[in-house]
Amino acid sequence: MNITVIGTGYVGLVSGVCFAEFGFDVTCVDNNLAKVESLKKGEVPIYEPGLDKLMKKNMVAGRLGFSSSTKDSVKDADIIFIAVGTPSKEDGSANLDYVYLAVAELAGSVNPNTVLVIKSTVPVGTTKSVKKFLQDRGVEIDVAFNPEFLKEGAAIDDFMHPDRVILGVESKKAKKVLSQVYRPLYVFNVPIVFTNLETAELSKYSSNAFLAMKVTFINEIANLCEVCGADVNDVALAMGLDKRIGDKFLLAGPGYGGSCFPKDTSALADFAKDFGVNMNLVEETISSNDKRRAKMVKKILSACDGEVKGKDISVLGVTFKANTDDMRDSPSIEIIQALQEAGANIKVYDPSFSQQAKRIFNNVSWEKNPYECCNDADVVLILTDWSEFRALNLKELRKRVKNPLLIDLRNIYSVDEVRASGFSYCSVGRVFCK
């Protein structure tokens, strides 16, 4: 079976590589010529653990190739996946321009026996609109929807061992072809759920909105903990042991960011209005998360006795989460820029050495490791929960700083171990320990 994946962003590239690992012949297409040439050399443009090795392995095996020509890449495809971006517009709605551009490009060359699958996250009704778009151009092919549920930093495992696969189809042919594509997962007893197009489209938004609400809920509980004397980590543990709730996404912190939660919650709230439905919980989630970064800035200022002007703040981690170089909607952006506006001097260490971050931040010193970053610091500020920050030698760190203040917005450490190392400790949802 020949598979073509249009779009070599995060979802497209990971999907293409993993389909090749399943044993299919895969061509990944992108209209960015420089990016395609880089991919042909085996250069991975994103930070995703294990992706570079898996990509090179399948290129050497002859199962994976890259092209800048949609026309040449779709004519012999048995199935085409569209995995282009659907970023938010200024009004919060999903921008579908890249989806329809991809569909328009393939319309003149696609084989009538091909099944076209939308993998990009799109509002309810989009897949049917794509089919109508093709029909208006005289193209009659089966169109399906297959949402992705990939976590950045664990995307390969999520693809190869998913919790579920959701497939929105309208025909027996599309169901048969997609069954063949995901047949390699049957050995792991992965639930393969076939449903209609609208249900599949909504399942993606519903999942991300619910997870975003869990993040926001525990952050609001953290606010309460700080004034009533409770410990948010222990509250989250008690909640998570309830199987009806589960322990995932109950980590208090600076708020959610990334490529999915911000845009998907906004898009869900927006297109629901087209159906006459108000998503009040989702809208409150968005509002609460938007306010979270400013609250974290106030927390930092309060821990510094209200003044950071002229102080050297060493920031550990700036990506929106660990194991990625993705800076999209990262809480660190607003937090660092607010601290700079307040007069702080910023040094940064992030294990991804994110080029995105270097383009975003001005007047920042970039360091090679966490210990060098913390030399002569007035404040050590943890913004991302990278694994290598979990076992820092705090006593060594204490020797390097000017002022022993550790502000941990990811609650990586226990209060006792930080205090034993000689630091004052400010975390989230716990009492500030001086």
Outline the fold blueprint.
Layout: E1 2-6, H1 10-22, E2 25-29, H2 33-40, H3 51-60, E3 64-67, H4 70-74, E4 79-82, H5 97-107, E5 115-118, H6 126-135, E6 142-145, H7 155-160, E7 165-168, H8 172-181, E8 192-195, H9 197-228, H10 232-240, H11 261-274, H12 280-303, E9 312-316, H13 331-341, E10 345-349, H14 355-360, E11 364-366, H15 370-373, E12 379-382, H16 394-400, E13 405-408, H17 415-420, E14 424-426
Parallel strand pairs: 1-2, 1-4, 2-3, 4-5, 5-6, 7-8, 9-10, 9-12, 10-11, 12-13, 13-14
Account of the protein in words:
The protein has 434 residues and is an alpha/beta fold. It has 2 domains: 2-194, Rossmann fold, CATH 3.40.50; 196-434, NAD(P)-binding Rossmann-like Domain (Rossmann fold), CATH 3.40.50.720. It is built from 17 helices and 14 strands. It has helices spanning 10-22, 33-40, 51-60, 70-74, 97-107, 126-135, 155-160, 172-181, 197-228, 232-240, 261-274, 280-303, 331-341, 355-360, 370-373, 394-400, 415-420, and strands at 2-6, 25-29, 64-67, 79-82, 115-118, 142-145, 165-168, 192-195, 312-316, 345-349, 364-366, 379-382, 405-408, 424-426. The strands form 3 sheets. It has a 6-stranded parallel β-sheet, with helices on both faces. Strands 11-10-9-12-13-14 form a 6-stranded parallel β-sheet. 45% of the residues are buried. The model has no long low-confidence stretch (mean pLDDT 96).
